[in-house]
């Protein structure tokens, strides 16, 4: 019940934010001084071509009319067509979404599984070996930008050791893709019992996921450690010790109370990962939606850019909503 | 003099990590200042007969795909790192701190508006937003600086606002109001110095972030373009050679970047240790 | 032999200042007192006098930078200061119960009241879940919580301050302790609720024959609820004795000043700087710690004051005690 109320409230607040994002990207695109008709028509086009395209895209009308028309088509679930490929934007985005999700969520889970226990342990033993090594790990993870990390891993594990497959796409060249069920090659291959494709997809996932995990784990370790230390210094942790609770009970209590702020924080960082994913996809020729959006931005395909920003916002909101539901299940105070 | 030395030594001992970070950052700053004197070769001179040369006595860090000396280019790259991150920081603080002060002090619709704007920034991967804006407004270095600075403003607003709210809650502000202080005096004398402490501790971290993001943008091909000796652009140029084994072209500028970013965050750690009153005077 | 005997307890805070110079704050300087079974002693003094630190020492909960430098704490014939961690932990919450101030923040916010009461029972002995739950409900009833079975499933944030303090008392008493430490149990509660909580404590202490160390800065509470009183200043007990003796004729200048300044109700928390600045623990005067603030101080006060005994356990540490 409380969950339903929360979702409704979230939606209520989400709509103006979404609208703001739409307006912002729309204005940016239209007022940028770029000439989309010129981009579309290409370098060999004649002036007539440009005028025709301008009319076709209604670019000759005032900006506010264009925006209303855009919102109107959007309300019908239509994001228009890509200016470059002329395919529906919705399809172009959705077809590439699973690749990005596979990488970000896989890496995110890996990162969280490393970061949270490490941060907790570090807080329980401040200045211990684990504390120092987690701080170093956190510094390196924070310092190493994805561009460097990705290339370093490729050099070491593909070129030097030959353990990793080449950083080109999600499957080995000669492997046929499994039939699309979820869109994730690994999951689809496992579902259809195609072990060869599964092995190939898994092997290709390793390096990108390790990159994502490192980028995710670094701030998460620091945050978990800081929150857990606050919890350990709290009145209730003091009182629990005064009650002679065994260390096991205290650890469990610290974890439960640390989880709530860490999950909220982790959700914010998870959203940022979709940005980092764009660069990683570029390096690993991954072909996911983040890379696609990045390319659309660089090439000026603004129908796709708008669809992409919208999709990213929706993903962010979905992540925050899931985080809120998890927080509510853990923290009675959030259920009020 | 003797006491000053002892003070410095104690300061270093109290945060050795921060001191090490500061030393490295200063070293980078010196390199940036004296790059022309330090670099063995001009940064954009192509040695046509030694393309992709491995590190040796003539080219300490090898040469890139155009036959340019990687070492010299890395030295010059420090100028871009500081040249971008310092203005970013300045704009971010000059705009962010007053907004945060007023939002935290006034509350009401000002605060509400600031919060909503930050919400918009929050639901968005910042790099994507930066890219979209830079791509739309034209890919000049100045635009890159302004866009990264805009994202920074939000951070400083949040930090300063949070400080102001805690100060308000502590009753100090109410006492100042009751004592008949005018608003400007409360903002400038009572709130600014205290909340600046939080912003100050954030500075190296934000600088590290700006260095990282600007390099990433250059890597993608936005802002600084390839023949320029900027680390991100150099990594971009070298990325295609990594799979064929010419690692130095991309990984050495990458290492230079990583070390600066890590040093800046170490400095930030040390600074927040020193500036955070809750953590001061702890037993060690 | 008394149940609890604290002898010459010294606790210092050891740290380094920003310049790396070692700092030593002498927080407890030879605290000595004892407590018999069934007796209620009130520990009074201003903030920073070392009351809570004394309690923490008894509980074995000193954390760095606080260090016990010297002294023994004998509880039931055993020296707590040398007890292994595990045994000390087993003692806390079972043989020694504790009630603290700020009850609202002292309960685990993510566990139901009942679960916390069950948890503390299971931490100190094998007890079937059902039996532990029944005892928890009975205990909630005993501390005056209406509708106990329903409150058993309540979350801490759903309780008022007074209710939360009753729950803490239930937590402290559920394992039948022999010693209760109540550290400012009514600070921050409404005046009417304060009285209810104190009545509840007094009733439980009497019914169970509990030895109680009641820490407070409210002299009125001491006068009304305690058998004996010990006044602390700058980490030393300057005077102790039965409540009747001390309140009728305080002998130490500090205690005299405390009691004289407001005969029926002195709340020291509202006068943190009662008669002078709080002492600087890093630079205490030689000899008597009260010297700098004492109106009667003379050069002889530079040597540690002797114990002036007035019979019936009434004693003050002073060179020049007030005449009776």
Give an account of the 3D structure.
The complex is a heterotrimer of chains A (about 325), B (about 280) and C (about 325). Chain A is an all-alpha fold and about 325 residues long. Helix content of chain A is about 75%, strand content about 0%. Chain A has a domain of about 190 residues: Orthogonal Bundle (MetI-like fold). Chain A is built from 13 helices and no strands. The mean pLDDT of chain A is about 85. Chain B is mostly helical. Chain B is about 75% helix and about 0% strand. Chain C is of the alpha/beta class. Helices cover about 30% and strands about 25% of the residues of chain C. In chain C, strand 7, helix 8 and strand 8 form a beta-alpha-beta unit. The model of chain C has no long low-confidence stretch (mean pLDDT about 85). Chains A and B meet through helix 1, helix 6, helix 7, helix 11 and helix 12 of A and helix 5, helix 6, helix 9, helix 10 and helix 11 of B.
The termini of chain A sit apart by 11 Å
Domain count of chain B: the total is 1
Cα-atom Rg of chain A, whole angstroms?
24 Å
Beta-strand residue percentage of chain A = under 5%
Q: What best-fitting shape of chain B do the alpha-carbon axes yield?
A: globular
What would you call the shape of chain A? globular
**Percent in helix of chain B:** over 70%
Low-confidence stretches of chain A: none
Please tell me the overall pLDDT of chain B: 83
The CATH superfamily of chain B is MetI-like
